[in-house]
Sequence to fold (333 residues):
Amino acid sequence: MTNKSKTPQRQLVFVIDLNKCIGCQTCTVACKKLWTAGPGQDFMYWRNVETTPGKGYPMHWKSKGGGYKNGALQMGDFPAPDQYGVPFDFDFFGRLFEGKKDRVKPSPAPRSAPNWDEDQGADDYPNNFFFYLPRMCNHCAKPACLEACPEDAIYKREQDGLVVINQDYCLSKKSCIKACPYAKSYYNSVTETANKCIGCFPRVEKGVEPVCVAQCVGRAMHVGFIDDEASSVHKLVKLWKVAMPLYPEFGTEPNVFYVPPILGSNREDNDGEISGKPRIPFEHLIGLFGSGVVITHDLLNAERNRKIAGQESEIMDVLIGRRSADMMSLSIT
Ligand code: SF4
Ligand code: SF4
Ligand code: SF4
Fold:
């Protein structure tokens, strides 16, 4: 049996509540410090948090291609280095020792970077809007990266469904990078291998949550095995269906799910009156997560109103997550 035909016994799933993410980038830095501080990884952010609407990281990744179309694997583009953002230094030497009069400038002048358009969003005041979209490898059920790898270097781990790259087998063909429609596999030009999020499997194997989850300041993340009916991920994804994958039309069946940001304010109409329309247009949310966001919007608002009225709401209690332990279910069976 090749790696391509194996299906995992269990699947680890992540849920990110976009109503709680404050865009602080703590998860980004935690992942960076732990996993991508090595040679050839300067530009790599296995975990990144981008502003949407926006260009994203790498820039314009949404249109790079990849994934599946009518069930057939698609090969997309290989992002150029400046789409990720080339690392730069500030010219302290010139300013301090050569007496250059300008303020300290980055050198070389950057043309893009992660968070290049952070907080810009869309529309004009008072109806301008944006929100934060944390991104990572989706540890897909149908991983295009795995399907594309000619060397069988990529596999789904049997015990947790995490998708990882065997660095000893990778022959730097870059196929996974072109095939992943989420641009979450990266080329390391020093090791000449592809690198990607490993789901923090050394931690998961010990029953410890991934570091991006552990460090989340907004307590926006849930993690657990989807077959555990008591877990918050099972309830949010399977039972209440209030968490949904990003761009499901890419066809890779992601295992990272998002609770869409729908508990915000309403738009103003032309007379400056508060309208009944949500500040973040449904069209934008539908574009990201599909038409299910409309039902989710109504359900979550109804549940929130129950809570405000002093009634019980299990969905709101799970989303509030008063105890971190209740947001994680990592028991290994
Ligand atoms: Fe592979 Fe991309 Fe899916 Fe991750 S998100 S498993 S890299 S196809
Ligand atoms: Fe990084 Fe681990 Fe989170 Fe993956 S699961 S994005 S490796 S911190
Ligand atoms: Fe959002 Fe949590 Fe990451 Fe902060 S640490 S950016 S709140 S997901």
Observations:
- DSSP finds eleven helices and 17 strands in the chain.
- The mean pLDDT is 94.
- Residues 12-85+113-329 form a domain with the Alpha-Beta Plaits fold (CATH 3.30.70.20).
- The CA atoms of residues 12 and 220 lie 17 Å apart.
